[in-house]
Amino acid sequence: MSEKIKFTIDGKEIEAEKGQLLVEVAAENGIYIPVLCHWKGVHPAGSCRICTVKINGRFMASCTTPVDANMVVESNTPEIQDLRKAIIEMLFVEGNHFCPSCEKSGDCDLQGLGYRYQMMVPRFPYAFERRELEASTPKIFLEKNRCIFCKRCVRMIKDEEGRSYFAFKGRGKHLEINLDTKLAEHMSEENARLAMKICPVGAILRKEVGFETPIGKRKYDHVPIGSEIENLQN
Amino acid sequence: MSKPIVATASLAGCFGCHMSVLDIDDRILQLIELVDFNKSPITDIKTFTQPCDIGIIEGGCCNSENIEVLKDFRKNCKILISLGECAIMGGLPAMRNGIPVRECLEEAYFGGVTVRDNTERIIPNDEELPIILDKVYPLHEIVKIDYFLPGCPPRADLIWEAVVALVTGNELKIPYELIKFD
Ligand code: SF4
Ligand code: SF4
Hints:
The structure holds two protein chains of two kinds. Chain A is α+β, with helices and mostly antiparallel strands.
């Protein structure tokens, strides 16, 4: 039998099963902690750090932290809000995010967070690093300029034999998302669809479809990202 | 008390942000009650004729003339606002950032699909022409900018709310739907 424990998030008492991931427990209780790399049911990567909270006074990623009895979690504090905003700003300057010409605009989680945290201008200088577009396979475009290295595609999109279509190449400043173009020649429609869906930004786009949803009807046109979780309880 | 004076300019932009200013519709009548305009494409006043309170700038800096105009605005305006994505982050013109200038010019004057009869392979280089910068710069990387209004273009309501808040000194509360990057 799993052990029930109690702890608090921003003063609110929460009951959960010991060992559940903090980010998921929070969501079940109507508390939105933003994620870019986490995907429920997939082994956590802890790579984007946008879900950072303070646990008993220390910064931790809530997607990799199992809950335990009597933890004191701070999430919605000005300090952590600003930290998250800084991460969002960093992701914007590090890639090349020309939202007006991006097909994911309106449905993009990074952009959605920019709106939610009211990013008017990043505090960091723009890098304007140039990365190539991989457009040679039949089903998808890989627009490397928009990748935020969440590793969702690497972890989740695989062929029947379990081989990943995507992989990281290089390190640090030279890190790049890459597509196995040979394997991707036979990518199924289903995988292409899933890849575009799980990519939190506009780095993976399906070919031959585009701008399907009109402005005004897109995910984050009228409500902030995270509303679906917060509205659970209200 | 005299009215605050506003100046505007479009640098490396498409004029869409200025169009969005006009998109406040009949509130433009209230606007001219609130402020006076000086140097601006809207008034067609070409040079500053007095110190201004608010400078609103669309477009980033892509050439030497943009920088000159921007610096002139900083000198003549108490408050400078970056209006729109191009002013804030270079916008679509900045898609050339990372491509060497020579390559861009050669594409425009030799290789592009609209090039006609440039058999002598001339890239215009008259000293009267502003020099193209190595990349398109966001305004705040050139001079100090006081406020930023994102959007491509920024929604008319955002511009209206921001200018009214600034002029009246009231707090600016921005509804969720007014902050957009597209
Ligand atoms: S991926 Fe998202 S943030 Fe980046 S350009 Fe596209 S819409 Fe904007
Ligand atoms: S391509 Fe998309 S899903 Fe893959 S690592 Fe980059 S941002 Fe994540």
